[in-house]
């Protein structure tokens, strides 16, 4: 059994029964009763919808502080503000030297923490690379140099690392010196969590860009890459690499976009 149901306060309104997609709750004699189908996946919709706050999830007792009460009639951000945030977001590659501290990172992870995930797996693991970023990028190069002939950027990266050529910026990191990686068994889980974190970062005066070439390391030699992260389940893949920092440039206007293809059928 996964739920604690307070029979005293339950009014038998049936909302929990309606929202449970696993049919794990039925209302009998005006009281919610848990049915043990063995497949409750802790989504918490029953406790989130309960008007009398009569349900709690077992095993999450230490996380009561994460349960917040909301007015279900109010949306906390106006659609206009949110659309403006989406429109104003620009990839940032030019950063101040100031580093993001742990407290600020933790706020970003709070934004990612509430992301949906397939089967409610909540399996995304993040790594913040700071002191070890340089070492990590050397490993990335060792792996992706296999495709040096295909991509001029990888060739430049090699030259930069060997001190050859006259590079103003790091060909992969530009002025970045901190990076957030997201690992998951499911690419969608990692990407959804990462984009939430990314957008929230902009509300905190931060910015960054996704680094495709870093992800290539996972594509080309997953096992070797994962040796760098012994604490992470090696069945997970690195699906997002976001270079992040305090922007040293500020953009003033939106730029033209090609338009989005939508088919209503
Ligand atoms: C999946 C993905 C990979 C990207 N990889 C890189 C990259 O390796 N290096 C880089 O400088 N920018 C990278 N970007 C940023 C894009 O180049 C950027 O979105 C594009 O220049 C448009 O600018 P905007 O994001 O400001 O609209 C990537 C973006 C995405 C979504």
From TrEMBL:
Top-rank taxon, per record: Archaea
Gene3D superfamilies xref list: 3.30.70.20, NADH Oxidase
PANTHER family per the UniProt record, alphabetical: NAD(P)H NITROREDUCTASE YDGI-RELATED (PTHR43673), NADH DEHYDROGENASE_NAD(P)H NITROREDUCTASE XCC3605-RELATED (PTHR43673:SF10)
The protein's name in its UniProt record: Methanogenesis marker protein 16
Family that this chain belongs to: Belongs to the nitroreductase family.
Keyword field: Oxidoreductase
Pfam families: Fer4_10, Nitroreductase
Domain 4Fe-4S ferredoxin-type: 1-30, 31-60
GO molecular function: oxidoreductase activity
């Amino acid at each position: 059994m996964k739920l604690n149901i307070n029979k005293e306060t339950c009014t038998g309104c049936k909302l929990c029964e309606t929202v449970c997609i696993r049919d794990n709750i039925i209302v009998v004699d005006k009281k919610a009763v848990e049915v043990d189908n063995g497949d409750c996946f802790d989504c918490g919709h029953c406790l989130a919808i309960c008007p009398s706050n009569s349900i709690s999830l077992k095993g999450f007792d230490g996380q009561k502080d994460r349960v917040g009460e909301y007015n279900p009639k109010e949306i906390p951000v106006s659609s206009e503000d949110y659309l403006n945030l989406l429109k104003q977001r620009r990839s940032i590659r030019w950063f101040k030297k100031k580093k993001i501290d742990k407290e600020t990172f933790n706020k970003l992870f709070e934004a990612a923490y509430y992301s949906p995930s397939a089967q409610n797996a909540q399996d995304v693991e993040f790594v913040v690379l700071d002191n070890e970023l340089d070492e990590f990028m050397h490993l990335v190069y060792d792996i992706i140099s296999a495709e040096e002939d295909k991509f001029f950027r990888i060739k430049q990266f090699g030259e930069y690392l060997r001190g050859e050529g006259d590079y103003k910026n790091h060909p992969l990191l530009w002025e970045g010196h901190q990076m957030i990686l997201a690992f998951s068994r499911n690419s969608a889980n990692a990407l959804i969590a990462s984009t939430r974190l990314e957008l929230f970062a902009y509300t905190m005066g931060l910015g960054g860009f996704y680094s495709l070439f870093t992800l290539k390391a996972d594509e080309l030699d997953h096992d070797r890459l994962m040796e760098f992260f012994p604490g992470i389940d090696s069945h997970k893949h690195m699906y997002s690499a976001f270079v992040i920092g305090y922007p040293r440039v500020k953009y003033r206007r939106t730029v033209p976009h090609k338009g989005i293809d939508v088919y209503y059928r």
